[in-house]
Amino acid sequence: MSETARDPAPVARTGRRIALGVSYDGRGYQGWQSQPSGQTVQDRLERALADFACKPISTLCAGRTDAGVHGLMQVVHFDTDIERAPASWVRGTNRFLPPDIAVQWAQPVPAGFHARASAIARRYRYVLLESPVRPSLEAGRVGWVFRPLDGVAMHAAAAHLIGEHDFSSFRAAECQAASPVKTLTRIDIERRGAYWRFEFEANAFLHHMIRNLMGCLVRVGQGLAHPDWMREVLAARSRDAAAPTFAPDGLYFVGPVYAPHWGLPERVAAYDWA
């Protein structure tokens, strides 16, 4: 879950550019980005596209996700000289994908569109179960805490994070981002029964940033730290000042935000499920 790794060299423009919206369950994969093992979401998607198109296709995504992190609407683009209707790209590619990855939509886009560079914001959601008993049916799809959480305290802590800040305290050691300064525009926290939902929106995120923020919010929510401690952690600009990295289980890449003129879908059915 990051904007850390550098994209490969731009793909040569041939024919038309296609954007896809892709959803996936991240539990069985080593993250988004292609690896020698071939066990990543990108690897499986590109193999399916190649099987459907009968030739290799390389994709670029809006935001890479870590192992175990899910995608509600990852957006990718690729260039191709193959002529297919948008519905054919959806149905044809899904025919070759495993059940836990699915193309949700396909749309031709102008040559100037870039899944990553054209995004003006990115959104993540963390779903957290508060229960004395660990999750079962939803195991791997939600995070879990067994101590009660204080929503008022977490809201107060989150308020310290809004705006442009140096988020070094919430940055993984292996993060490759050029700058730790990001603009966090929104954190919404709400409870539905035993489940908490945390919504994050920013211009970009650092490697493990959401999971590190969650570790700190949960610590405050459990009464183990005062809400103002979040301000101290932020000011420290040191990973040692923050709580341990929280589990990836309940983390979802909701998707990128694009300017309206690109005309891309703004939501998929999985938004309602999560």
TrEMBL record:
Reaction catalyzed: uridine(38/39/40) in tRNA = pseudouridine(38/39/40) in tRNA
Keyword Protein biosynthesis: no
Binding residues for substrate: Y124
GO biological process annotation, one example: tRNA pseudouridine synthesis
Pfam families from the UniProt entry: PseudoU_synth_1
UniProt KW tRNA processing keyword: yes
InterPro entries in UniProt: PsdUridine_synth_cat_dom_sf (IPR020103), PsdUridine_synth_TruA (IPR001406), PsdUridine_synth_TruA_a/b_dom (IPR020097), PsdUridine_synth_TruA_C (IPR020095), TruA/RsuA/RluB/E/F_N (IPR020094)
Family: Belongs to the tRNA pseudouridine synthase TruA family.
Protein name: tRNA pseudouridine synthase A
Gene name for this UniProt entry: truA
